[in-house]
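Encode chain A's predicted structure.
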Amino acid sequence: MNKVKNYRNYKEKRPKITFESLTLKSPKISTNINKRDRFSIIVPYRNRLEHLYKFIDYMDDFFKGIPEVEIIIVEQSDDNQKFNRGALLNIGSYYAFDTFHAVYVINHDVDLLPDNNMLPYYLYPTRNKPVHLGWRWKEKYNFNSYLGGVFSISKHIYNKIRGYPNQFWGWGGEDDALYNRLAKHNIIVLRPTTGSYRSLPHEHLGDDKKQHKQKQASILQDFRNIHTNKTNNKTNNKTNNKTNNKTNDKIQNKQNFYTIKKVEDLSKNKYKHKIIKIVVDLHKSNKK
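Encoded structure for chain A:
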């Protein structure tokens, strides 16, 4: 597979994921944390403050009555780099695994709000089969390989596929790489059959021709890497830093890919659930 000649050739030859339907209408899932798997919501974010607080308010109410749900906002600072969604999801996911002992994480765009029929899918204890909750967002994307928006994945599978690549700068591409990493390991992905999302309006300018070519090149390179076992994201992404209570501490990971500038608890007395915001600088010169 590492011998694919170009992007078109890659699209024709890449392994395909098997998708299965998942229907949860009347879940019998306990709200007691001792009787269910613990999970965290991971939200990659930058410069969309209005959306952020609408999302937090909505999701805090969405999980009403369900204890021990953390929402982790991973904010990319104004570090003169393009937005890197995959890297932020990696940082937030390993923070959840290490700090909150999450069994699975739900990677979540800040502008997507689920209806109440989606709740059982959030509580579904994904282990060996990730759940693409974002499949129920029908406003924009409906092509078969789409894995974006909202994606639930266990720690076990996250480690197995080594998360997302860190080298996708700018809009898009990291979900294509996720698809390829799951397909390489023959991992089945579940799709909910009920529920829906509504999106908060925002302007997206998309890619120019040069950016689109760069994105295709990054997808192709990551595809070649995973089929020659050159990826090493597990150690590159893992947050081995021990954070303390001082929110202004700067903590740099061993690989120097990112610096945690601040860890802030937004919960205070306003929210029922724990809301953590991690502000990071990303260092493009150390991309993997």
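The chain has one domain: 7-286.
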